[in-house]
Design brief:
Elements lengths: L10 H8 L7 H13 L3 H21 L5 E5 L9 H8 L4 E6 L2 H5 L12 E6 L5 H8 L10 E5 L8 H13 L6 E9 L3 H11 L9 E2 H6 L5 E2 L5 E2 L16 E7 L2
Length: 258
Amino acid sequence: MTEIDTSVPHSARIWNYWLGGQDNYPADELAGDAYTAVFPGISTIARSSRAFLRRSVRYLVQEAGVRQFLDVGAGLPTVDNTHEVAQGIAPESRIVYVDHDPLVLAHARDLLTATPEGATAYEDISLFEPERILEAAATTLDPARPTGLILSGILGHVADHDRARDLVRRLLAGLPSGSYLSVNDGSRGTDPAYEQAQDAYNESGAVPYFLRPVEQIEAYFEGLELVEPGVVSVPMWRPDGAAGPDPIGQHGGLGRKP
């Protein structure tokens, strides 16, 4: 806890604030409100990203029969965390969360409330060490069984897109056939106000997050079998209910490793 400075805005706490969580401080609220003043839709994006995570995990458990998950860049616990969704359907599901942030580590206990039949674990490892991640995950997950790899809102923190693609490939390389990749990240080309707000945020001295063209998000799924409807704006990916939601600047998809 001595590494956490609550007087400086922190991206995980700001995201938590937009999601309606409680793990944030006045500095985070001020930064979040400043962003919202430029782009009020950011709270919708945050909640839509979480809803996509919920629907994709639900699909993997109910329709694909996946029973173990590797959630890299887990962030602060809020609602509908991966283990809550998966174990709510299949209590025997096993989940490994990975993050490399002292703030998230301090709250990791809230990610470790597993069902008696299943398991959850937290590994303090950077996204930039994929082989270490796979090695650590193997203490909780069976490397021979299909795994749902979750990368939710994390790849935008990798400045170089080619490096981000390489990290995805290296993580997938350690997972067996029948595993799935779930990605959703901020995208360019939908809302100029969103891009303006994010560009200003990146110049503020906070840890930057880079919005990417949709085709770059699609590139993460190279070599995988995309689940319909493919890579789309996240509210449009298998939405709950019959209403057709409007697209937003957050795209994602789900792909199966052959």
